[in-house]
Design a protein that fits this description.
Length: about 240
């Protein structure tokens, strides 16, 4: 796909989300795309490989998070299970004033993120470790304004890992597919125990493909009990019910 065509595709998709990308942002997305495709030939990071797929299913899908919040300068956002930087880095490109932290347990993914950081020359922090461990550390616990996560786990598991990172009044945005009602029902106990409530289930449309998706937006009302999250692997094996 020629560069001018995929750039226009990106602009078109962003406009569908009411985002107008400037030339500097387009250039950063171009560097991101080239770096990801080149690195992915040597180290498998994503099964989505063509420029068109990356633009729609990674870049634009990440930007749908803006349907759930308005970014403010200095807002601290942590992206759980970020992988190759989604949704966090596209959010940072479009809103450079946010303070972004990317968390992943894979050193392979982290190596790519450090490489990408040098290529993009933008500021973000990379944490390597399990969310269950890092959420118990005082420097990360109940600190962040926003937690974001793509479909890295079931919602009841994500809630236990995500809400302890949030300050009171912060929100967790879980990117989910079209059929999410069962996950929400199964997560009600975890949401309550961890001190949250569902603010909104926001139906969105993925640009270009026009696929139906959901953002599950959970607000932090009360401190999360200190015993949560439980040790690594337990929230997934034994979710709260």
């Amino acid at each position: 796909m020629q560069k001018d065509k995929w750039q226009e595709l990106l602009k078109q998709g962003a406009r569908e989300l009411e985002i107008n990308l400037n030339d500097s942002q387009i250039k950063l997305f171009s560097v991101y795309l080239d770096t990801l495709r080149s690195y992915n030939q040597q180290v498998h990071l994503t099964g989505i490989k063509t420029s068109k797929e990356i633009i729609i299913k990674h870049f634009l899908d990440s930007l749908t998070c803006f349907c759930g919040f308005n970014p403010d300068k200095g807002m601290e956002i942590i992206d759980l299970g970020t992988g190759a930087g989604f949704p966090g880095i596209p959010l940072k490109i479009c809103s450079p004033g946010i303070e972004l932290i990317l968390l992943d347990s894979s050193e392979k993914q982290a190596d790519f993120l450090y490489h990408l950081k040098n290529q993009l020359a933008i500021k973000f922090k990379i944490l390597i470790g399990r969310a269950e461990d890092l959420a118990q550390k005082v420097e990360y616990r109940e600190r962040y304004d926003i937690v974001v996560a793509r479909a890295v786990a079931k919602l009841n598991t994500l809630v236990e890992c995500a809400l302890p990172f949030l300050k009171i009044g912060g929100i967790f945005i879980a990117q989910k597919g079209f059929d999410v009602q069962n996950e929400i029902s199964q997560a009600e106990k975890a949401i309550d125990v961890l001190g949250g409530r569902i603010r909104e289930q926001k139906r969105i449309i993925l640009p270009i493909l026009h696929e139906k998706r959901n953002l599950v937006i959970i607000e932090k009302l009360n401190p999360s009990p200190l015993e949560y999250p439980r040790r690594p692997g337990v929230p997934q094996r034994k979710p709260l019910k």
